[in-house]
Write a structure and sequence with these properties.
Blueprint: H1 6-16, H2 23-36, H3 39-48, H4 50-60, H5 67-84, H6 93-112, H7 122-137, H8 145-157, H9 161-170, H10 202-224, H11 228-238, H12 246-253, H13 257-280, H14 282-295, H15 300-304
Length: about 300
């Protein structure tokens, strides 16, 4: 079987030569360990079923993980089973232990199969351990194409088809280093050099910040140039985390809520027009605002501080 070292071979031979326990002996040993913490009983129970760890390790070797490590994981699962086993539930220890051994080996394979974390949920774990076998079984059905294969496997394994496609992509090949060359040439580019740099262009970032500042300044200027009542309504209705209702604002200003609504609509129309003009010719708009402030007609500096005042 191509075991890795002499110690593993000795362990396998010793495990296969251990006694086979009948149900009564098995139950007695389990009770002795549970109630009296009898380590001799535990050792006998574990040794008798170490063959289960050896058997399951042979099944999991196809996942290209060390055989002796699989046996060790199986033994850990076996010990966990002995700790959790309830001899009063009527089940055989071998049946109960098989589940823990398999789970321990599955977790080990999932942790070591790839550097990319795989099997983060029950669907993915189920896919990982069933997909390869299902694909090998369907190798002869070439006329059905990959799309039909993923659909059939999703239906058979009762998992979403997109997860089948994702897992098939992950299992298509081994992990590759991004620093590995793309060709055998000494001067070949590394794969990392072919990755697209998705970081924003510095020039675009600067221009974007400048445009945002310009738009913010244009909005503030446009609000500041509104008549006092309209500016107050815009501040209360659109520049606060919790807008003031038309009714409350009308009461505070001594007018009806319908009149507040009319003034709000007129103010929004003026703001829209001012911003459109600003977008059409930013320099002209800035010059217009500067001239207005210098002449005293805009009063933007005086009004700016009262934008959020109701």
């Amino acid at each position: 079987m191509g075991f890795q070292d002499q110690h593993t071979r000795r362990f396998v031979r010793a495990s296969m030569a251990e006694e086979l326990l009948d149900a009564e002996t098995e139950t007695a040993l389990a009770i002795a360990w549970r109630d009296q913490r009898d380590e001799a009983a535990l050792h006998r129970l574990i040794s008798a079923y170490a063959r289960l760890a050896v058997s399951f390790a042979g099944r999991f070797r196809r996942y290209d993980v060390p055989y002796d490590d699989l046996i060790q994981q199986g033994n850990l699962g076996l010990m966990r089973a002995a700790e959790k086993f309830d001899p009063g539930n009527g089940a055989r220890f071998s049946t109960y232990a098989a589940w823990w051994i398999r789970a321990s080996m599955q977790d080990y394979v999932m942790r070591n199969w790839s550097l990319v974390r795989t099997g983060t949920n029950a669907h993915q774990k189920k896919l990982f351990f069933h997909l390869r076998r299902a694909m090998q079984r369907d190798e002869g059905r070439e006329e059905q194409g990959e799309g039909a294969l993923s659909t059939r496997l999703a239906r058979e394994l009762q998992v979403p088809e997109e997860q089948v496609n994702l897992m098939m992509g992950r299992m298509a090949g081994p992990d590759l280093s991004l620093d590995a060359p793309q060709s055998s040439d000494d001067e070949g580019r590394a794969w990392v050099d072919a990755l697209e740099d998705d970081t924003p262009d510095p020039e675009a970032l600067v221009l974007g910040r400048m445009e945002n500042r310009r738009r913010r300044r244009a909005l503030y200027n446009a609000v500041a140039d509104l008549p006092e009542r309209e500016r107050r309504i815009i501040a209360a209705r659109h520049l606060q985390d919790e807008p003031v209702t038309l009714s409350d604002l009308g009461t505070a200003m001594g007018i009806s809520k319908e009149r507040v609504r009319q003034l709000e609509e007129r103010a929004l129309a003026r703001l829209g027009k001012a911003l459109r003009e600003d977008d059409g010719d930013p320099q002209e708009a800035d010059s217009r605002q500067t001239a207005a402030r210098r002449s005293g007609t805009g009063q933007a500096g005086k009004r700016y501080g009262s934008l959020a005042v109701v």
